[in-house]
Design goal:
The chain is of the alpha/beta class. It has two domains: 24-48 and 115-342, no CATH class; 52-106, no CATH class. The chain contains 13 helices and 13 strands. It has helices spanning 24-32, 41-46, 52-65, 71-76, 82-96, 102-106, 115-127, 203-209, 224-235, 248-257, 282-293, 311-322, 330-342, and strands at residues 35-39, 130-133, 142-144, 148-149, 155-156, 162-165, 167-169, 185-188, 214-216, 219-221, 237-241, 271-277, 297-303. The strands form four sheets. Strands 7-8-2-1-11-12-13 form a seven-stranded parallel beta sheet. The chain has a two-stranded antiparallel sheet with strand order 3-6. Strands 4-5 form a two-stranded antiparallel sheet. The longest helix has 15 residues, at 82-96. The protein is globular and about 55 Å long.
């Protein structure tokens, strides 16, 4: 059973701020170099990528364009969950030996050209040095630098420089805790567009990916994904970005599988979740604040009234300005090495 914790950081307010204050724990983690942004579909959606439902629909529609599936069949599946649609799309791919063009699905406006996306991921590049994402796209695979000045002398976000290539990890065997000590790395927890076969899409994919450790031939076969997540949540400070209410299912699944535990004597949350709300959703925000607190996660609500989800860009830019990522302190590096050896 989850232990009750003292609600030290739970602050009730009648107003949700467009740009909430940076929690002290988050600011400290950023300066120490232990803050790791955990990026979800909401971030890529702002950058022009499809949401989960659109992604599944477009995967099926691909076979309509190839005359391997009819509009009538597509309509019959319209109310099915995305994972069901993706399972059928995977079956059609095998049946007809046709590779789904995931690039066209993920980048309908062109690859990494979206102005809002460049602003958002530039802010993330300033806020962290190591990233974990459940997204398939490659927005995090390169650093995005400051916008280049235009001929008029003004900065143009559409020409923000694509900078250094990050180390990209997406294979399960490479999801090892020691790699969380290497700056300029991005972990694609559910696979990458660089290798479509690695993408976790269907219900069976998820069940296999997050299966518990199990005995085999007298030995315990460890799930490397779960070990990776356990180390991440126990030794690092995670900032969840781009997880709205529609992504709660996968977020809860990840958190639950990581076997998060809460220390009843802890006075400060270790992890943080940026989530947007409308002003009339204040009670919902307060309820979710208590819910996430039981998992050791501090909810940071921001107001969507004026800019909807685009408000997240302003929040991240301000956070990147106030709490830029620092280099890991020697004492933290030693602590993480000890945890690796004892793990």
């Amino acid at each position: 059973m989850l232990q009750k914790i003292r609600p030290v950081e739970l602050v009730r307010t009648d107003v949700i701020a467009p740009i909430p204050p940076v929690p002290p724990g988050l600011h400290e983690a950023a300066l120490k170099g232990t803050l790791i942004p955990f990026v979800g579909a909401g971030a890529s959606r702002i950058a022009g990528c499809p949401n989960w439902i659109e992604f599944a629909d477009r995967a099926l529609r691909f076979f309509v364009t190839q005359s391997k599936f009819t509009h009538g069949q597509l309509d019959q599946l319209s109310r099915q969950p995305p994972r069901v649609k993706l399972s059928i799309a995977r079956s059609l791919q095998r049946e007809h030996d046709l590779l789904i063009k995931f690039d066209d699905i993920l980048y309908p406006e062109g690859r990494n050209t979206n102005e809002k996306g460049r602003r958002l991921y530039q802010a993330l590049s300033s806020l962290g040095k190591i990233f974990v994402t459940t997204n398939y796209d490659d927005w995090l695979d390169n650093t995005i630098g400051a916008p280049a000045p235009s001929a008029s002398g003004n900065e143009d976000a559409t020409t923000a420089a694509i900078g250094e290539k990050r180390t990209v990890i997406y294979k399960v065997d490479e999801l090892t805790p020691d790699r969380l000590e290497r700056p300029n790395t991005v972990f694609h927890l559910h696979g990458s567009i660089a290798d479509p076969a690695s993408m976790i899409l269907t219900t069976q994919d998820y069940l296999r990916h997050y299966a518990n450790d199990h005995p085999s031939n007298g030995h315990v076969v460890e799930n490397k994904v779960l070990r990776f997540l356990a180390f991440l949540f126990s030794e690092k400070n995670v900032l969840f970005v781009g997880y709205g209410l529609e992504e709660l299912e996968i977020l809860e699944y990840i958190i639950g599988k990581a076997r998060l535990t809460v220390n009843s004597d802890r006075t400060e949350m270790r992890h943080f979740l940026l989530q947007g709300f409308f002003s009339h959703e204040r009670v919902l925000a307060e309820s979710l604040e208590n819910y996430y607190a039981e998992c050791g996660i501090k909810l940071i609500p921001f107001l969507r009234d004026d800019k909807d989800w685009d408000q997240l860009i302003d929040v991240l830019e301000e956070y990147a300005r106030l709490a830029p990522a620092g280099a890991p302190l020697n004492v933290q590096v030693l602590k993480d090495m000890e945890a690796l050896l004892n793990g």
